[in-house]
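During the practical work, I selected for study one protein's amino acid sequence and its backbone structure tokens, as given directly below:
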Amino acid sequence: MRLQLTLLALILAFVSSVADANSRNDKNVKTITKKEAVSLALDKYAGRTLKISEENQFFVVRILQPDGRIVDLKVNKKTGEVNKD
């Protein structure tokens, strides 16, 4: 019985330390700000920003181009990669 309790305590300690390490790793991941997302989007498409919203791991930046067309761009929060929606 004592061996089982010791093994259980070791397993719980291990699981707890792994969860804590994962939590710290998530906090160390830098994400871009909304301002940076707009700047990256405007570097790719000229125009005026109409709206910015968030979708999971992306910012969606809506731009009014000089010719009157509207384009929605997805900016990855972690990488800053810009793709047309």
About this structure: The domain at 34-84 is CATH 3.10.450.40 (Nuclear Transport Factor 2; Chain: A,).
